[in-house]
Amino acid sequence: MVNVLFCPVTFNLAETTRMIEVARALHPIHRSVFMGYEEDYVSLINDAGFEYRACTPSWSKAQRDQAIAFDQGRGLRTPFTAELVAARVDVERELIRELDAPVVVTGSNLTSYISARAEKVPLFYPVPFALTLAQVQQTRRMEFIRGDGWPARAADVLATSAFRWVYTRAPLAPRSFTKVAKSNGVPPLRTAASLLTADRNLLTEMPWELKGFRMPPGFERIGPIFAHIEAPLPPIVGELAAASDPLLYLALGSSADRRLALAAARALGELPVNVVAPIRHYLEPGDTVPPNVHVTDLLPAHQLGGLVDAAVLHGGQGTVQTACATGVPFVGMGVQPEQTWHVRACERRGNAIAVSPKDVSKPRFLAAVRRVLTEPGIRAAAAEVRDAYAQEDGAAAAARLIEAAIGPR
User: Fold this and answer.
1) What number of other Cβ atoms are within 10 A of residue 400's Cβ?
2) pLDDT at residue 254 in the model
3) Ranges of the chain whose pLDDT falls below 50
4) Helical spans, DSSP H, in 333-392
5) Residue 355: what pLDDT?
6) pTM above the 0.85 mark?
7) Which residues contact 358 (CB under 8 A, 6 or more apart)?
8) Distance between CA 389 and CA 393 in Å, rounded?
Protein backbone atom coordinates (compact mmCIF):
# COMPACT_ATOMS: atom_id res chain seq x y z
CA MET A 1 0.00 0.00 0.00
CA VAL A 2 1.24 3.47 -0.94
CA ASN A 3 0.09 6.58 0.90
CA VAL A 4 -0.87 9.66 -1.15
CA LEU A 5 -1.13 12.91 0.81
CA PHE A 6 -3.79 15.44 -0.22
CA CYS A 7 -3.46 19.00 1.09
CA PRO A 8 -6.50 21.08 0.07
CA VAL A 9 -7.56 24.36 1.58
CA THR A 10 -10.49 22.86 3.43
CA PHE A 11 -12.52 26.06 3.54
CA ASN A 12 -12.50 26.14 -0.28
CA LEU A 13 -15.38 24.00 -1.55
CA ALA A 14 -14.22 23.51 -5.14
CA GLU A 15 -10.68 22.67 -4.13
CA THR A 16 -11.74 20.16 -1.50
CA THR A 17 -14.19 18.37 -3.80
CA ARG A 18 -11.70 18.38 -6.69
CA MET A 19 -9.20 16.47 -4.55
CA ILE A 20 -11.86 14.06 -3.33
CA GLU A 21 -12.59 13.16 -6.97
CA VAL A 22 -8.89 12.54 -7.68
CA ALA A 23 -8.57 10.38 -4.57
CA ARG A 24 -11.59 8.34 -5.64
CA ALA A 25 -9.98 7.73 -9.03
CA LEU A 26 -6.76 6.28 -7.59
CA HIS A 27 -6.31 2.51 -7.65
CA PRO A 28 -7.47 0.87 -4.38
CA ILE A 29 -3.89 -0.19 -3.67
CA HIS A 30 -3.21 3.44 -2.77
CA ARG A 31 -4.31 4.94 0.55
CA SER A 32 -5.46 8.54 0.30
CA VAL A 33 -4.87 10.66 3.40
CA PHE A 34 -6.15 14.22 3.62
CA MET A 35 -4.85 16.97 5.86
CA GLY A 36 -6.08 20.50 6.48
CA TYR A 37 -6.26 23.36 8.94
CA GLU A 38 -9.90 24.48 8.89
CA GLU A 39 -13.09 22.41 9.34
CA ASP A 40 -15.53 23.94 6.86
CA TYR A 41 -15.72 21.10 4.31
CA VAL A 42 -14.01 18.31 6.21
CA SER A 43 -17.38 16.52 6.44
CA LEU A 44 -17.25 15.95 2.68
CA ILE A 45 -13.87 14.22 3.07
CA ASN A 46 -15.20 12.04 5.87
CA ASP A 47 -18.40 11.25 3.98
CA ALA A 48 -16.30 10.12 1.01
CA GLY A 49 -14.59 7.60 3.30
CA PHE A 50 -11.10 9.11 3.40
CA GLU A 51 -8.87 9.55 6.42
CA TYR A 52 -8.47 13.16 7.54
CA ARG A 53 -5.73 14.61 9.74
CA ALA A 54 -6.71 17.86 11.46
CA CYS A 55 -3.66 20.11 11.71
CA THR A 56 -2.74 23.38 13.35
CA PRO A 57 -2.23 26.32 13.37
CA SER A 58 -5.59 27.23 11.85
CA TRP A 59 -7.09 30.59 10.91
CA SER A 60 -9.94 32.76 12.09
CA LYS A 61 -12.68 33.78 9.65
CA ALA A 62 -11.03 37.18 9.15
CA GLN A 63 -7.70 35.54 8.35
CA ARG A 64 -9.35 33.22 5.83
CA ASP A 65 -10.99 36.16 4.07
CA GLN A 66 -7.64 37.92 3.95
CA ALA A 67 -5.95 34.82 2.48
CA ILE A 68 -8.68 34.44 -0.19
CA ALA A 69 -8.33 38.10 -1.17
CA PHE A 70 -4.56 37.64 -1.56
CA ASP A 71 -5.03 34.41 -3.57
CA GLN A 72 -7.50 36.14 -5.89
CA GLY A 73 -5.34 39.22 -6.38
CA ARG A 74 -7.70 41.52 -4.47
CA GLY A 75 -5.34 42.38 -1.64
CA LEU A 76 -1.69 42.52 -0.63
CA ARG A 77 -2.00 41.86 3.10
CA THR A 78 -1.88 38.23 4.21
CA PRO A 79 -2.13 36.25 7.46
CA PHE A 80 1.05 34.35 6.54
CA THR A 81 3.33 35.30 9.41
CA ALA A 82 6.77 33.71 9.58
CA GLU A 83 5.68 31.80 12.69
CA LEU A 84 2.57 30.38 10.99
CA VAL A 85 4.36 29.44 7.77
CA ALA A 86 7.20 27.75 9.65
CA ALA A 87 4.79 25.84 11.89
CA ARG A 88 2.69 24.60 8.98
CA VAL A 89 5.74 23.55 6.98
CA ASP A 90 7.01 21.58 9.99
CA VAL A 91 3.63 19.84 10.37
CA GLU A 92 3.45 18.96 6.68
CA ARG A 93 7.02 17.70 6.46
CA GLU A 94 6.48 15.48 9.50
CA LEU A 95 3.29 14.05 7.95
CA ILE A 96 5.00 13.37 4.61
CA ARG A 97 7.72 11.47 6.45
CA GLU A 98 5.27 9.60 8.68
CA LEU A 99 3.24 8.43 5.68
CA ASP A 100 6.31 7.88 3.51
CA ALA A 101 4.24 9.65 0.85
CA PRO A 102 5.94 9.53 -2.57
CA VAL A 103 3.80 12.40 -3.90
CA VAL A 104 1.77 15.28 -2.53
CA VAL A 105 -1.39 16.60 -4.17
CA THR A 106 -2.26 20.16 -3.26
CA GLY A 107 -4.35 23.15 -4.21
CA SER A 108 -3.80 26.65 -2.95
CA ASN A 109 -2.36 25.46 0.37
CA LEU A 110 0.72 27.60 -0.10
CA THR A 111 2.92 25.95 2.49
CA SER A 112 2.77 22.71 0.47
CA TYR A 113 5.00 24.41 -2.08
CA ILE A 114 7.75 24.48 0.53
CA SER A 115 7.12 21.28 2.49
CA ALA A 116 6.87 18.92 -0.50
CA ARG A 117 10.02 20.32 -2.07
CA ALA A 118 11.88 20.19 1.22
CA GLU A 119 11.01 16.48 1.43
CA LYS A 120 11.96 16.08 -2.25
CA VAL A 121 8.64 14.59 -3.35
CA PRO A 122 6.82 15.79 -6.51
CA LEU A 123 3.98 18.22 -5.97
CA PHE A 124 0.83 17.80 -8.10
CA TYR A 125 -1.68 20.63 -8.51
CA PRO A 126 -5.03 19.94 -10.27
CA VAL A 127 -5.94 23.52 -11.16
CA PRO A 128 -8.05 25.69 -13.44
CA PHE A 129 -5.99 27.33 -16.18
CA ALA A 130 -7.04 30.88 -15.35
CA LEU A 131 -4.48 32.78 -13.23
CA THR A 132 -1.80 30.14 -13.62
CA LEU A 133 1.66 31.27 -14.65
CA ALA A 134 1.11 29.84 -18.16
CA GLN A 135 -2.18 31.70 -18.63
CA VAL A 136 -1.01 35.05 -17.27
CA GLN A 137 2.16 35.00 -19.36
CA GLN A 138 0.26 34.42 -22.61
CA THR A 139 -3.04 36.28 -22.18
CA ARG A 140 -3.34 39.68 -23.82
CA ARG A 141 -6.60 40.64 -22.09
CA MET A 142 -7.63 39.40 -18.66
CA GLU A 143 -10.88 41.39 -18.88
CA PHE A 144 -10.17 43.45 -15.80
CA ILE A 145 -11.85 46.23 -17.77
CA ARG A 146 -14.92 45.01 -19.58
CA GLY A 147 -16.34 46.32 -22.80
CA ASP A 148 -16.12 45.75 -26.54
CA GLY A 149 -15.22 49.28 -27.64
CA TRP A 150 -11.61 50.17 -28.41
CA PRO A 151 -11.12 52.37 -25.31
CA ALA A 152 -12.09 49.48 -23.04
CA ARG A 153 -9.99 47.01 -24.99
CA ALA A 154 -6.93 49.27 -24.96
CA ALA A 155 -7.31 49.98 -21.25
CA ASP A 156 -7.64 46.27 -20.52
CA VAL A 157 -4.48 45.45 -22.50
CA LEU A 158 -2.59 47.96 -20.36
CA ALA A 159 -4.13 46.67 -17.14
CA THR A 160 -3.29 43.09 -18.13
CA SER A 161 0.30 44.03 -18.93
CA ALA A 162 0.68 45.67 -15.53
CA PHE A 163 -0.88 42.68 -13.78
CA ARG A 164 1.42 40.30 -15.69
CA TRP A 165 4.49 42.12 -14.41
CA VAL A 166 3.18 42.23 -10.85
CA TYR A 167 2.16 38.56 -10.86
CA THR A 168 5.21 37.05 -12.51
CA ARG A 169 8.09 39.40 -11.63
CA ALA A 170 7.33 41.66 -8.67
CA PRO A 171 8.66 40.34 -5.34
CA LEU A 172 5.24 40.38 -3.71
CA ALA A 173 5.28 36.99 -2.03
CA PRO A 174 5.14 37.46 1.75
CA ARG A 175 8.66 37.60 3.17
CA SER A 176 7.75 34.72 5.46
CA PHE A 177 7.79 32.34 2.48
CA THR A 178 11.26 33.41 1.41
CA LYS A 179 12.56 33.11 4.95
CA VAL A 180 10.99 29.70 5.66
CA ALA A 181 11.90 28.32 2.24
CA LYS A 182 15.56 29.19 2.80
CA SER A 183 15.56 27.65 6.26
CA ASN A 184 14.15 24.44 4.77
CA GLY A 185 16.68 24.30 1.94
CA VAL A 186 14.20 25.29 -0.75
CA PRO A 187 14.69 28.03 -3.37
CA PRO A 188 12.96 31.19 -2.14
CA LEU A 189 9.43 31.95 -3.30
CA ARG A 190 9.43 35.62 -4.23
CA THR A 191 6.60 36.23 -6.74
CA ALA A 192 2.86 35.57 -6.57
CA ALA A 193 3.23 33.12 -9.45
CA SER A 194 5.89 31.10 -7.63
CA LEU A 195 3.53 30.59 -4.70
CA LEU A 196 1.06 28.72 -6.93
CA THR A 197 3.19 26.86 -9.48
CA ALA A 198 3.75 23.21 -8.65
CA ASP A 199 6.03 20.59 -10.20
CA ARG A 200 3.08 19.12 -12.12
CA ASN A 201 0.26 21.56 -12.91
CA LEU A 202 -2.71 19.52 -14.12
CA LEU A 203 -5.14 21.78 -16.00
CA THR A 204 -8.78 20.94 -15.43
CA GLU A 205 -10.01 22.30 -18.76
CA MET A 206 -11.72 21.26 -21.99
CA PRO A 207 -9.58 21.29 -25.16
CA TRP A 208 -11.24 24.39 -26.62
CA GLU A 209 -10.46 26.41 -23.48
CA LEU A 210 -6.73 26.00 -24.11
CA LYS A 211 -6.86 26.66 -27.85
CA GLY A 212 -4.10 29.06 -28.88
CA PHE A 213 -2.09 28.59 -25.68
CA ARG A 214 1.30 26.91 -25.49
CA MET A 215 1.83 24.55 -22.58
CA PRO A 216 5.23 25.18 -20.95
CA PRO A 217 7.08 22.39 -19.11
CA GLY A 218 5.19 21.27 -16.02
CA PHE A 219 1.75 22.09 -17.44
CA GLU A 220 -0.60 19.54 -19.02
CA ARG A 221 -4.34 19.23 -19.60
CA ILE A 222 -6.27 16.51 -17.81
CA GLY A 223 -9.90 17.59 -18.30
CA PRO A 224 -12.72 18.73 -16.02
CA ILE A 225 -13.03 17.69 -12.40
CA PHE A 226 -16.13 18.65 -10.43
CA ALA A 227 -17.92 17.47 -7.31
CA HIS A 228 -20.01 14.32 -7.10
CA ILE A 229 -21.40 14.71 -3.60
CA GLU A 230 -22.90 11.40 -2.53
CA ALA A 231 -26.17 12.57 -1.02
CA PRO A 232 -29.83 12.42 -2.06
CA LEU A 233 -31.51 15.49 -3.44
CA PRO A 234 -33.97 16.99 -0.95
CA PRO A 235 -37.64 16.30 -1.84
CA ILE A 236 -38.26 19.98 -2.59
CA VAL A 237 -36.18 19.71 -5.77
CA GLY A 238 -38.41 17.00 -7.25
CA GLU A 239 -41.52 18.91 -6.23
CA LEU A 240 -40.32 22.10 -7.90
CA ALA A 241 -39.17 20.24 -11.01
CA ALA A 242 -42.69 18.80 -11.42
CA ALA A 243 -44.33 22.23 -11.14
CA SER A 244 -45.42 24.16 -14.20
CA ASP A 245 -43.04 27.09 -13.70
CA PRO A 246 -39.39 26.79 -14.83
CA LEU A 247 -36.87 25.77 -12.18
CA LEU A 248 -33.66 27.76 -11.73
CA TYR A 249 -30.58 26.74 -9.76
CA LEU A 250 -28.78 29.55 -7.90
CA ALA A 251 -25.30 28.49 -6.75
CA LEU A 252 -22.57 30.80 -5.47
CA GLY A 253 -19.95 28.32 -4.22
CA SER A 254 -17.75 29.38 -1.32
CA SER A 255 -16.18 32.58 -2.70
CA ALA A 256 -19.18 34.93 -3.00
CA ASP A 257 -20.76 36.80 -0.10
CA ARG A 258 -24.02 37.50 1.68
CA ARG A 259 -24.69 40.70 -0.24
CA LEU A 260 -24.52 38.99 -3.64
CA ALA A 261 -26.56 36.00 -2.43
CA LEU A 262 -29.38 38.23 -1.20
CA ALA A 263 -29.30 40.49 -4.26
CA ALA A 264 -29.51 37.54 -6.67
CA ALA A 265 -32.28 35.83 -4.71
CA ARG A 266 -34.36 39.02 -4.53
CA ALA A 267 -33.89 39.76 -8.23
CA LEU A 268 -35.03 36.26 -9.19
CA GLY A 269 -38.11 36.82 -7.06
CA GLU A 270 -39.37 39.10 -9.84
CA LEU A 271 -39.56 36.27 -12.39
CA PRO A 272 -42.29 33.61 -12.82
CA VAL A 273 -39.89 30.83 -11.88
CA ASN A 274 -39.04 28.65 -8.94
CA VAL A 275 -35.51 28.78 -7.58
CA VAL A 276 -33.56 26.20 -5.61
CA ALA A 277 -30.70 28.00 -3.92
CA PRO A 278 -27.96 26.28 -1.83
CA ILE A 279 -26.95 29.60 -0.28
CA ARG A 280 -27.86 28.98 3.36
CA HIS A 281 -24.20 29.28 4.42
CA TYR A 282 -24.24 32.95 3.34
CA LEU A 283 -27.42 34.03 5.12
CA GLU A 284 -27.83 35.37 8.62
CA PRO A 285 -30.77 35.04 11.02
CA GLY A 286 -33.48 37.44 9.91
CA ASP A 287 -32.49 37.47 6.23
CA THR A 288 -35.51 37.03 3.97
CA VAL A 289 -35.81 35.91 0.37
CA PRO A 290 -38.85 35.89 -1.98
CA PRO A 291 -41.30 32.99 -1.60
CA ASN A 292 -40.32 31.45 -4.94
CA VAL A 293 -36.68 31.10 -3.77
CA HIS A 294 -36.15 27.91 -1.77
CA VAL A 295 -32.94 28.06 0.26
CA THR A 296 -31.09 24.79 0.93
CA ASP A 297 -27.73 23.53 2.09
CA LEU A 298 -25.19 22.28 -0.46
CA LEU A 299 -26.73 20.01 -3.09
CA PRO A 300 -25.36 17.13 -5.18
CA ALA A 301 -25.51 19.38 -8.23
CA HIS A 302 -24.40 16.65 -10.64
CA GLN A 303 -27.85 15.10 -10.11
CA LEU A 304 -29.73 18.20 -11.30
CA GLY A 305 -29.51 17.47 -15.04
CA GLY A 306 -33.00 17.15 -16.46
CA LEU A 307 -34.54 18.73 -13.35
CA VAL A 308 -33.48 22.38 -13.58
CA ASP A 309 -34.04 24.50 -16.66
CA ALA A 310 -31.18 26.96 -16.17
CA ALA A 311 -28.75 28.21 -13.55
CA VAL A 312 -27.29 31.40 -12.11
CA LEU A 313 -23.70 30.82 -11.02
CA HIS A 314 -20.83 32.80 -9.51
CA GLY A 315 -18.37 31.44 -12.08
CA GLY A 316 -16.25 29.12 -9.97
CA GLN A 317 -14.95 26.29 -12.10
CA GLY A 318 -16.70 23.59 -10.09
CA THR A 319 -20.18 25.06 -10.50
CA VAL A 320 -19.52 25.96 -14.13
CA GLN A 321 -18.28 22.48 -15.01
CA THR A 322 -21.21 20.83 -13.25
CA ALA A 323 -23.62 22.93 -15.31
CA CYS A 324 -21.71 22.08 -18.49
CA ALA A 325 -21.65 18.36 -17.74
CA THR A 326 -25.39 18.26 -17.06
CA GLY A 327 -26.41 20.37 -20.07
CA VAL A 328 -27.74 23.28 -18.02
CA PRO A 329 -27.41 26.73 -19.66
CA PHE A 330 -26.47 29.44 -17.22
CA VAL A 331 -25.91 33.09 -16.40
CA GLY A 332 -22.48 33.58 -14.87
CA MET A 333 -21.29 36.55 -12.84
CA GLY A 334 -17.65 36.01 -12.00
CA VAL A 335 -16.67 37.78 -8.80
CA GLN A 336 -12.94 37.68 -9.62
CA PRO A 337 -10.81 37.29 -12.78
CA GLU A 338 -10.49 33.50 -12.69
CA GLN A 339 -14.26 33.11 -12.50
CA THR A 340 -14.85 35.68 -15.22
CA TRP A 341 -12.52 33.68 -17.48
CA HIS A 342 -14.57 30.51 -16.94
CA VAL A 343 -17.84 32.27 -17.72
CA ARG A 344 -16.48 34.05 -20.78
CA ALA A 345 -15.16 30.74 -22.16
CA CYS A 346 -18.67 29.28 -21.90
CA GLU A 347 -20.22 32.41 -23.38
CA ARG A 348 -17.98 32.03 -26.42
CA ARG A 349 -19.04 28.39 -26.63
CA GLY A 350 -22.68 29.51 -26.59
CA ASN A 351 -24.05 27.82 -23.46
CA ALA A 352 -23.85 30.79 -21.08
CA ILE A 353 -24.27 34.54 -20.76
CA ALA A 354 -21.79 36.61 -18.76
CA VAL A 355 -22.90 39.52 -16.59
CA SER A 356 -21.15 41.56 -13.93
CA PRO A 357 -22.08 41.06 -10.26
CA LYS A 358 -22.90 44.78 -10.34
CA ASP A 359 -25.71 44.00 -12.83
CA VAL A 360 -27.61 41.68 -10.48
CA SER A 361 -30.05 44.39 -9.42
CA LYS A 362 -30.39 45.77 -12.95
CA PRO A 363 -32.65 44.82 -15.89
CA ARG A 364 -29.71 43.30 -17.77
CA PHE A 365 -29.45 40.47 -15.26
CA LEU A 366 -33.09 39.41 -15.55
CA ALA A 367 -32.92 39.76 -19.35
CA ALA A 368 -29.99 37.34 -19.38
CA VAL A 369 -31.89 34.86 -17.20
CA ARG A 370 -34.88 35.02 -19.55
CA ARG A 371 -32.59 34.32 -22.51
CA VAL A 372 -30.99 31.19 -21.03
CA LEU A 373 -34.48 29.93 -20.21
CA THR A 374 -35.94 30.48 -23.66
CA GLU A 375 -33.40 30.82 -26.48
CA PRO A 376 -33.12 27.56 -28.46
CA GLY A 377 -29.54 28.32 -29.58
CA ILE A 378 -28.25 28.60 -26.01
CA ARG A 379 -30.00 25.42 -24.98
CA ALA A 380 -28.68 23.56 -28.05
CA ALA A 381 -25.13 24.70 -27.23
CA ALA A 382 -25.57 23.46 -23.65
CA ALA A 383 -26.53 20.02 -24.98
CA GLU A 384 -23.46 19.94 -27.27
CA VAL A 385 -21.17 20.86 -24.37
CA ARG A 386 -22.78 18.15 -22.23
CA ASP A 387 -22.02 15.55 -24.90
CA ALA A 388 -18.39 16.71 -25.09
CA TYR A 389 -18.01 16.50 -21.31
CA ALA A 390 -19.23 12.91 -21.38
CA GLN A 391 -15.98 12.00 -23.17
CA GLU A 392 -13.77 13.51 -20.44
CA ASP A 393 -12.61 12.30 -17.02
CA GLY A 394 -10.12 14.68 -15.47
CA ALA A 395 -9.97 12.84 -12.16
CA ALA A 396 -9.01 9.57 -13.87
CA ALA A 397 -6.38 11.37 -15.96
CA ALA A 398 -4.90 12.97 -12.83
CA ALA A 399 -4.86 9.62 -11.06
CA ARG A 400 -2.96 8.00 -13.94
CA LEU A 401 -0.28 10.68 -13.82
CA ILE A 402 0.07 10.43 -10.04
CA GLU A 403 0.33 6.65 -10.21
CA ALA A 404 2.92 6.87 -12.96
CA ALA A 405 5.01 9.18 -10.75
CA ILE A 406 4.73 6.75 -7.85
CA GLY A 407 5.84 3.85 -10.02
CA PRO A 408 6.59 0.40 -8.57
CA ARG A 409 7.49 0.45 -4.87
Assistant:
1) 15
2) 80
3) none
4) 337-349, 363-374, 376-389
5) 95
6) yes
7) none
8) 8
| pLDDT given for residue 407 in this prediction | 86
Q: Could you tell me which of 9, 17, 39 has the C-alpha nearest to residue 251?
A: 17
Domains and CATH numbers, the chain: 2-224+393-406 (3.40.50.2000), 235-389 (3.40.50.2000)
Q: Determine the Cα–Cα distance for residues 368 and 379; give it in Å rounded to an integer.
A: 13
DSSP per-residue string spanning 222-234: ---------SPPP
Helical (H) or strand (E) element with 35: strand 30-36
pLDDT of residue 74: 64
Cβ atoms within 10 A of the Cβ of 68, count?
18
C-alpha dihedral, 34 to 40 to 45 to 48, nearest 10°: 180
Residue type for position 15: E
The single-letter DSSP state of residue 369 is H
pLDDT of 371: 98
What is the C-alpha separation between 56 and 190, in angstroms, rounded?
A: 25
For residues 268 and 250, is the Cβ–Cβ distance under 8 A? yes
CA torsion angle 352 358 360 364 (round to 10): -70
Q: Provide the pLDDT for residue 380.
A: 98
pLDDT at 95: 98
Specify whether the CB–CB gap between 15 and 71 falls below 8 A.
Answer: no
Contact yes or no for 176/70 (Cβ under 8 A): no
CA 234 – CA 112 distance, rounded (Å): 37
Distance, CA of 92 to CA of 112 (rounded, Å): 7
For residue 379, which amino acid is it? R
Cβ-contact 176, 85 below 8 angstroms: yes
3-state secondary structure at position 106: strand
- Could you tell me if 4 and 31 are in contact, meaning their C-beta atoms sit under 8 angstroms apart? yes
How far apart, in whole angstroms, are the C-alpha atoms of residue 307 and residue 251? 15
User: Which secondary-structure segment (H or E) carries 126?
Assistant: strand 123-127
User: What burial class does residue 271 get, using C-beta atoms within 10 Å of its C-beta: 0-12 exposed, 13-18 middle, 19+ buried?
Assistant: middle
pLDDT at 75: 64
Round to whole Å and give the CA distance between 313 and 256.
Answer: 10
